[in-house]
Amino acid sequence: MTANTTEKTAVQTKPGSQIIVDTLLEHGVEVLFGYLGGVVLPLFDKLYDSPIRVVIPRHEQGGCHMADAYARSTGKVGVVIATSGPGATNLTTGLATAMMDSVPLVALTGQVRTELIGNDAFQEADTTGITRPITKHNVIVKNPNELAQTIREAFFIASTGRPGPVLIDIPVDMQIAQVPVTPPQPIELPGYRIRERGHARQITAAAEAINSSQRPVLYVGGGVISGNASEPLRKLAKKANIPVTMTLMGLGAFDQNDPLSLNMLGMHGAAYANFAVQNCDLLICVGARFDDRVTGKLKAFAPHARVIHIDLDPSSISKNVPADIPVVGSARHVLTELLELVEYRERKEWFDQIAEWKKRHPLRYDQNAKTIKPQYVIEELWKQTQGQAIITTGVGQHQMWTAQFYRFNRPRQFITSGGLGTMGFGLPAAIGAQIANPDALVIDIDGDSSFNMTLTELSTAVMYELPVKVCLINNGYMGMVRQWQELFYGKRYSCSSLKSPDFARLAEAFGAVGLRAEKKEEVPAVIKAMLAEKRPCVADFRVDPEENVWPMVPAGKSLHEMDGLDIFEMA
Amino acid sequence: MKHILSALVQNKPGVLAHVAGMFAARAFNIDSLAVGRTDDPSLSRMTIVVIGDDRVVEQVRKQLAKIVTVVKVQDFAGMDVVARDLMLISVACPPEKRPEILALVEMFQGKVVDIGSKFVMVEVAGPENKIEAFIEACRPYGIKNLVRTGTVAMARQPRFAPPENEEAK
Predict the structure, then answer these.
(1) Helix locations, A101-170, DSSP H
(2) CA A279 to CA A215: how far, in whole Å?
């Protein structure tokens, strides 16, 4: 009798840590990036028995960038775990990076026991307070029964609408508590609504504007990639015959080898892209937010254009540039619907003009130089990889040269920190992308100072036998800073030169392979050797130390006022 | 230019910090912020008075709506709105001034809520300009202490004519 009753009323319980693992599995998590610490030990104990692969970085920032690149390269949600206090604060750079670039991420942080919160306990930090402005949403779990549902909501929020990082702070007693196992509840978030479908009348208005436009330009950003809208974008550009320029985050959304491609626009964009934007009569912005690095002087941006702005996030629309035809909706939905309504227009004059600009101002560098030009290394890398590698970068000159000279042909191929400009992003991002794409060729094109920030993750690459390559554009400077000091501070190179280690030997010390090229003639062979290498490999290219990124819109100038256009004209 | 926004938010810890943090991070100018539970204990209502032009306020509205725990945002611009502040004010009041001050309180439809030999504490509720006027009226006597809530506001139901229109501009 007693046994019977117990059987009927017994609810299955599990420790909170097991509930966390089960809920991650429920969301198809196969791999996560995490670093241990006292208050996440119950969780790691359960991960020990789970099929989830755990990758341990050397620093939580690295782990967060890895999860970020895992997400960017696959479209899945990246997962990262850190302990309380310093573990959680080390995540902040990674979270802010993911937030600025709208990357779906779930971060789980341990927290001190509930009754100690607020008492300045050992390794306590107000993690939700610290991360509130750099996450899409965050929450601390104070009732273990809410663990599973909170994680489900986190995955939902991170991956829907405009994606972003969601952090869940979990006190250690929540992980130990016995929790009744309950089936998934429907997700009810009364304040969270997403408008995937654009307003039909606005879409019609946009189509009419496109059909009647003489000089249209598509200006596309990362939203097209994260929204899986590359295919409708390509069809739209073809069908309506519109040139396409991309932001840094948008590179790969449209094949750069296509004749309709105008490549990147903005501060270090192609001159023809900027001229096209400044002279267009219709600017069709899709999944981009008119960043100041793109627009230059706002008042003089695209002065003759009507603006169509398609974005999933209503707060992006008319934030910087007022939209004449705003369309709130996902790039995929809106472009697909727009595709039905647009018609082919020849626009001969417009394309003739663009061809003329392309001919007069191509992206170029001094190919006759005796030194190793960084652009040459990247162009050679592009050739030898046939433009197929997954490329990550740090931040600075090498990032801009990569954007200019590696021609991306597919979405999720280029992984870079756009919005936040996070130096040190490249190597951990390459590791995350390689974990997600074990058979792909993954190359971090990095600068020496960016690489210096997180090179300790080489050890992670060696430990997990990941064949990531680091193509180091080593100029001995914080290159972009030096360029600004040269141009705007009278060549006073205050604190911008670095004394770096011998990177090739350092790589060997980590158990990776080190290569070096000091002469121009060595470059193709070193790249070849690097690509043939099955182990993690650092190839150190000692490039011309004072090479600049051209062309350039100086800060505060308008987009067509580019310097450096005639720099090789006499050569 | 002042705008009144009304935000229905989930009554959860951290929501106020999130909203206030958003204002600070984006350099929006809050004039006042008043929060309290609604009849539904899971929801709170925030009345936020913002200073800025239409473009700024539009952006504030959108950024507010973007916060996951914010359920609904309404901008009262162009609507017929009942707006109230509540003030407690302690005014220096020797016995000989008492009739004068009490008459003033009467005029402003205030209420004396505490009284001593040298002061009166008065409660005044109403639209902001009325509160300001009462403060000015009290100033000559000497204000000892003053505390105000932020504005709370509600739009009038359009179907009914307003029964009294004391705050009409």
Answers:
(1) 127-131, 147-159
(2) 8
A307-349 pLDDT, tens digit each: 999 999 999 999 999 999 999 999 999 999 999 999 999 999 9
Residue A113 CA, distance from chain mean position: 35
ipTM of model: 0.89
Neighbours of A12 (CB within 10 A): 8
AA letter at A216: P
Contact partners, residue A133, CB within 8 Å, separation at least 6: B21, B22, B25
3-state secondary structure A236-281: HHHHHCCCEEECCCCCCCCCCCCCCEEEECCCCCCHHHHHHHHHCC
A397-417 in b/e form (b: 16+ CB < 10 A) is: bbbbbbbbbbbbeebbbbbbb
Mutate to test the interface with B, among A188, A315, A328 (most CBs of B within 10 A): A315
Determine the distance from the C-alpha atom of residue A350 to the mean position of all C-alpha atoms in its chain, rounded to a whole number. Answer: 33
pTM above 0.90, yes or no: yes
Q: Report how far residue A400's alpha carbon sits from residue A457's, in angstroms, rounded to the nearest whole number.
A: 23
| Residue B57 at interface with chain A, using a CB cutoff of 8 Å | no
Q: Is A137 part of the contact surface with chain B (CB cutoff 8 Å)?
A: yes
Q: Are B4 and B60 in contact (CB under 8 A)?
A: no
CB–CB of A413/A392 below 8 Å?
no
The Cα A218–Cα A158 span in angstroms is 28
